[in-house]
Write a structure and sequence with these properties.
Residues 329-345 have a biased composition (Basic and acidic residues). The chain crosses the membrane at residues 288-313. Residues 80-171, 175-266 form the Fibronectin type-III domain. The chain is built from three helices and 20 strands. By secondary structure, the chain is mainly beta. Among the domains are: 2-72, Immunoglobulin-like, CATH 2.60.40.10; 85-167, Immunoglobulins (Immunoglobulin-like, Sandwich); 177-261, Immunoglobulin-like (Sandwich). Strand 3 (49-58) and strand 4 (67-72) form a beta hairpin. It starts with a helix and ends with a strand.
């Protein structure tokens, strides 16, 4: 790259573009570039991924290929954190919530919470880096406490957050969360919700009020474990505006609002009357099952008759063939001499009938009387 650009009257400048994962972007142009020199890029965030693109521009304002480099800066101390949030308080306890510092400038290994009354010395509470909530207990009743927090990496602690103050007595809670309609019908509504993010004490119950057309039609006080309620006997197709409040020993707090409605009632459609069949229509239109059954029975009768006729014709044909004189001298017999020794008897090629007896006819030479007998055929 450098040789190609140098052939056009030499370098004019280097263009560098730096892009960080947390949105810190830097563009740099380096003038009077030597063939070899070091360039320092400052004010980068610790423990942050960066991509750096670099290209050369010659005196004819022609830019060469762009090269991209990637790198991770080393760790540093965490930045100053945002103050913690008091999510609940009681006579001897305060519960805090906080967000991790961003950018962290390193891997967080610990959180440190400081708390104190008035001008007294600070006390410290260490918290695992995977947690975002902590209850500070064994506090004195009805006292104003101060709180602050900081984070730590392997390099050390960052700066403490700004200080917040709260009193160790229960207060009114914040609005309940996720207030919604889970089921509805023409005459009922099921409402559900979650606990307030800011509790300010032990939640003792909830209060629901719903109105239609500006009038409070529904009101219900519920016990602490409840997270849903069903209103019944409502008007169909009605719009309701509902409010929900949570309560502690200090009273009910801020409300969550919800607009909901019941399903409209389906229109009444008169049932379609089916006229009764008359006797004449029954005669003219017999049941389909009866017609089909009659057709099948008729087909079976015709098939049976046809089979019987075919069998009869076949048997008649065989009888005629047996009585018909044959033109072959071997099959013409005027005299049949039967002997016990059957060695000279040749069985016909025709297959034997299933009947173990064969009927033979012959003509006697003396009286020319046709006789018949049954001779057993050894199987």
């Amino acid at each position: 790259m450098t040789e190609a650009v140098h052939r056009c009257e030499g370098f004019r400048k280097l263009k560098l573009s730096v892009r960080g994962e947390f949105g810190d972007n830097i563009n740099v142009e380096v003038m009077d570039v030597k063939q070899s020199q070091d360039i320092f890029i400052e004010n980068l965030l610790p423990h942050s991924n960066y991509s750096i693109t670099i290209s050369a521009v010659n005196n004819l304002n022609l830019e060469g290929p762009v090269y991209t480099l990637y790198g991770l800066t080393p760790e540093g101390v965490p930045p100053k954190m945002e103050p913690p949030i008091v999510v609940s308080r009681g006579h001897d306890v305060v519960e805090l919530y906080w967000e991790a510092p961003r950018p962290p400038r390193g891997i967080i290994t610990e959180y440190d919470i400081g708390y104190a009354i008035g001008g007294e010395n600070w006390k410290e509470a260490s918290v695992n880096p995977g947690l975002r909530e902590k209850s500070i207990e064994n506090l004195r009743y009805n006292k104003t406490y101060r709180f602050r927090i900081r984070a730590k990496t392997i390099i050390g602690f960052g700066d403490y957050s700004d200080i917040i103050q709260t009193i160790t007595v229960e207060g009114k809670p914040g609005p309940p969360t996720n207030f919604t309609t889970t089921r509805r019908s023409e005459t009922s509504l099921e409402l559900s919700w979650g606990e307030p993010f800011i509790r300010n004490g032990l939640i003792t119950g909830y209060k629901i009020e719903c109105n239609a057309d500006g009038n409070i039609d529904l009101q219900q006080n519920l016990s602490m474990p409840t997270r849903s309620h069903v209103f019944t006997n409502l008007a169909a197709g009605t719009r309701y505006t509902c409010s929900l409040k949570a309560g502690t020993s200090a009273g009910y707090g801020e409300s969550s609002q919800l607009v909901t409605w019941t399903h409209p009632r389906a229109p009444n459609v008169p049932p379609t009357e089916i006229p009764e069949e008359t006797q004449q229509s029954k005669k003219n239109n017999p049941p389909i099952g009866g017609v089909v059954g009659g057709v099948v029975a008729a087909i079976l009768v015709v098939a049976g008759v046809a089979i019987a006729v075919l069998v009869y014709i076949r048997r008649r044909g065989r009888g005629c063939e047996a009585n018909r004189p044959s033109g072959s001298p071997e099959r013409e017999m005027t005299t049949l001499n039967l002997k016990k020794d059957r060695g000279d008897y040749e069985l016909p090629n025709n297959p034997l009938p299933e009947n173990p007896y064969m009927e033979l006819n012959w003509e006697h030479s003396d009286d020319s009387v046709e006789k018949g007998t049954d001779i057993s055929i050894d199987q």
